[in-house]
## 1
Amino acid sequence: MALEVKKLGVIGAGQMGLGIALVAAQKAGVPVTLVDNSQTSLDKGMKFADKLLEKDVSKSRITQEMAKETKSRLNPTTKMEDLSDVDFVIEAVPEIPDLKTSIFAQLAQICPPHTILATNTSSISITKLAAATTKDPTDTSVSSRVISTHFMNPVPVQKGVEIISGLQTSQSTVDAALELCKRMGKVPSISADSPGFLANRILMPYINEAIICLETGVGQKEDIDNIMKNGTNVPMGPLQLADFIGLDTCLAIMETLHQGLGDSKYRPAVLLRQMVDAGWLGKKSGKGFYDY
Ligand code: NAD
């Protein structure tokens, strides 16, 4: 039987961490210790949680009482030590390899010996993060409990989540991650620890190819987006989607695929790199393939 998660820890109260904490508190009904090293980020995150819950109440998706209960399950803190009693922790700090490895090394010290240590990384190897939990690679007592639960953005809306094992990850860790994700109302897919995992391995070359079609004049941006939108029944075309994800993020993921897999078919589009150089990063910077 999979480990029952009675208390969850989430590290990072940003875009992803806050979403993960809120969905866990609301759908799975678990108390969540939400850690961020910035009080400002915690305050901002909790305010955003209020806004999302108010919206759910106004649309009659939940009652005022349910919103209050959900909020009471979120326990914000700036202290990593407060994770000493959680059964499962999900790390969602920025995508900086050294930062993540140092957090996993700290978790190995702080958390009890049954706690599952999960990451929400978009591109870093799970095997590498697991290795950071120990000085003796043959001792897998902690590294076997490291896994990735890669949620999709925005977490309250997107049902998909990738479960990624490192070389060291045990089956009981996979089972616990699957169980928690299902309790959160998500539909998990299992992926191997390979660059881009499944979602980005498929999505980013699709976006990159759309950019190559634009740069080589195969089609105008509206035509590229319209044919995919109306031809494959997706809510937005690849160029608009790239603007929403952030062109810097798209470039970073293509570089990970290109370097990690060593195949020229993953070469980032020249235009993608130029747009990032120009500071045209999409929606967040006000200009990308479209103006915002
Ligand atoms: P974000 O920048 O919105 O949030 C990161 C949070 O971590 C911030 O609140 C920051 O204050 C906090 N933080 C920084 N250092 C910390 C530390 N040492 N201890 C505790 N908190 C710390 O980032 P995000 O977009 O939520 O991304 C988080 C992770 O999720 C990244 O690994 C990213 O690759 C991954 N991811 C992002 C998306 C996306 O679309 N944004 C999708 C899937 C996965």
## 2
Amino acid sequence: MDREKIIVIDFGGQYNQLVARRVRECHVYCEIYSYKTDLEQIRAMNPKGIILTGGPNSCYEEGVPSCREELFELGVPVLGLCYGAQLMMHVLGGRVCKAPVREYGRVEMMVDTSTRLFHDVTPLTVCWMSHNDYIEKMAPGFRMIAHTADCPVAAAQNTSRDLYAVQFHPEVLHTLEGSKILHNFVYDICGCAGDWRMDSFVETSIQAIRKKVGGGKVLCALSGGVDSSVAAVLLSKAVGSQLTCVFVDHGLLRKNEGDEVEEVFGPGGPYDLRFIRVNAQERFYGKLKGVEEPEHKRKIIGEEFIRVFEEEAKKIGKVDFLVQGTIYPDVVESGLGGESAVIKSHHNVGGLPDYVDFKEIIEPLRNLFKDEVRKVGLELGIPEKLVYRQPFPGPGLGIRIVGEVTAEKVKMVQDADAIYREEIAAAGLEKTPDQYFAALTNMRSVGVMGDERTYDYAVALRAVNTVDFMTAEASQIPWEVLQRVTNRIVNEVSHVNRVLYDITSKPPGTVEFE
Ligand code: XMP
């Protein structure tokens, strides 16, 4: 497909995905590739521009991620960020070395606003710096176009070769005019038209799916989460009742969630598709009986999910396509896109079913970031409540009940969690934490209720703020809200007599309890 495209070359920096997201926010399509990607492959993609990301290394050391000089001779504008900027200078004959003063955090920067890169940027602006090395001497043909008190070359350009180097991170929001700078690069320097829009994505995807599927049969495992819901609706709009969605209710969903999914996707709902709900609660509880070890529980839930799905698929018989709700960060994190290590493989619920008879996989969201998936969801008319649903792990409440899972414990944690969510919503705080939920600890302790001694379970409340879920801070829920939640939980949820609030950050904690 000959869509205009910017290529982000990943040198292992922590903000690599952010760079691509910011470019896409400018309505320009963008993909991430490892620095090891062959130059010919890059040339063949015919990019409008190339961005080199930051990275943790020193570019002048042996064996560190690097690039060939020919990368700068493709006739395509290149923007180097941080490590990428230093590497550009190093490869083209400049000098990079350890800086006398390390810069970290927000820094004031003086920029030359007569340049295309800084067009319309405030002459004295604020940028986000994070570097130990600096550009001591620019490569031949470059001119300094920004500096800070401690960084003599905060940005440089060689306009005759269309090469640009910035020491700071325009992709980080603390760089006040970072989006404008990236906008200037992709529009004014690379000449992009900005054709990446979610409404046209929906239109072209529907056409492409129709063409691919023809009269074939399509099967989709629906979890009720954002990704599989958006994928299912996209398919339904494209091929209607040629699509069958199987929704496995493993009994580890939030309170009433199974019914809510059925309301939206079931026969009474607005979408044209075949919907099959499998109520497999007892089967999962049976498999989990007596199992306490977290990884073992995860495995059981993942495997059982696949088995149930396969059994349903067998009843349906041969299908032509299987839909997967894979999104772009999954692709990048599984090592297929950028440079980042495989971080979350354990989060995949259980891989692909072995025995489903299908010819091909369809991944309609494979190129989208989460915020883009949400926009597509809204374009498709999916209810906001579903589109903005907070993340929920595949193994569900199975990993929010510490120790053995039983039907009684599931009910306790569902009820406590529902109260927590109700009160957070009532306080208008739904968008404040990025994820919040109740978990059931395996601890029982003594309490007093009425005049009776109790010996019951403790519920833990968790709320976190995070950008990428790899690190997280505990969210500061107001005390009055926590008090209300606590009172309601101990009064309304049987066998819970204590509520704890978890203020551990990640690391050293994790978001989930298991
Ligand atoms: P942790 O507990 O690893 O969670 O700090 C980080 C984020 O990932 C979600 N999570 C999962 N998602 N399957 C999933 O689909 C899983 O097995 C799983 N475990 C954790 C968690 O809810 C949080 O958003």
